[in-house]
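job 3f2a | input accepted
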Amino acid sequence: MLIKNKLQNVRRACLPWVLALALFSSFTPACLAQPEFVLKPATPTPASARNARVPQWRPNILMVMPNKGKDQEAIDSSLQEVHGEVVEKIGEGDMTVLMVKVEQQYFAEAERKLSQDKNFSSVQRDLVYKTDAAVAAPVNDPYYASEWHLRALNVINAWNVSQGGPIVIGVLDSGVNGSISELQGKTYSGYDAVTGVEGQRDVFGHGTMVSTTAAANTNNGVNTAAPARRAYIYPVRTGFSDGSISASAILKGVKRCGDLGIKIINISANGSPPYSFANQSVNSVLHTYFRWFHDTKGGLIFNSAGNDHLRDTNALSSYLIVVSAIDNGGGLASFSTYGRPVWFTAPGTGIYCTSSAGRVGSASGTSFSCPLVASVAALVWGAKPSLTNVQVENILKSTCYKDSSKQVWTESYGYGMPNAEAALKAALGL
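job 3f2a | predicted structure (430 res):
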């Protein structure tokens, strides 16, 4: 059953809570005219590519996609020739991915041969990336008034237009603790793509912080508020306890979300340029799934740019929405990666969110600018579910805040920073 059908039962069970969210109180002040947040001119400091971190990969594992129409005998013959053993199969039909184990002494030669073999369309290593993690300082009080990112994104005014609807955000991360007050009643049990079992838990703490940044329970007098206040979280554990995250687990997470009918995915992790997710040559299998989720399933994938302050020269993709970070002065954050793949920017310093232990922290990183953009998209899409993914993209692009140059697109900010109120009004024809 699709999640959108499951949500009908969830909403009925939580009706008093849903109605309460629709009411304004002293926690959500009546909207006054607020000055627009101004982005500084996009002038990033060049950073040397020598600082790039070459990603690691799972030993002896290749991710291989057979070409359409190739028979099993030919595939088996090619794999046997390179001493390859299929240890796992992901997907089906044209989206089949074979996890092939090759002993170390044959690995480089097998990768070369399979990449040139006409039986296969894509071959890549199972790369291991790092979450764009942040340092969080514990605090004790509700910090709604200190959430400068809500005002920067014009979220407070947007809530007077609409508070969105029960759209689901798939969070591909270290897992999510849905039992904390900020996520109670709005988190699915999810899936563990690392172990392949139903259900999950947060093994690092990062995924819970990302989820509360996007969709924390709001107007409940506890901790923080979030833009997509009526959204739900579908957690997929794709990471490990050391903060790393594997390409194969992300692939499984994208497939799971696509199969369930989830329309928005957040991936707050990346590699150091040029080895970022935007690099199609090293992530050819992943890109096939990214494209499938966007073009076939009609979804949107949001990806943090990274915290290396490097220029990413990989191409802008039509199906991978990369997000940089700004500071509270309106300039590119000192840590933020930027460059050709960037679609949008959002606040990424001093972002108040809740940890897996239920404590509020002030965090920084593109890990948090990314779910903020995803949550504005969720706010818009939740308010008007009939929109297509491309329509949501175009609404966000056409209503963005720009820097003083007024350029359509820049390497620092992409198309700009989302303006939640303007995007909602455009979506609803107001």
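job 3f2a | The chain has two domains: 3-29+131-428, 59-125.
job 3f2a | closed
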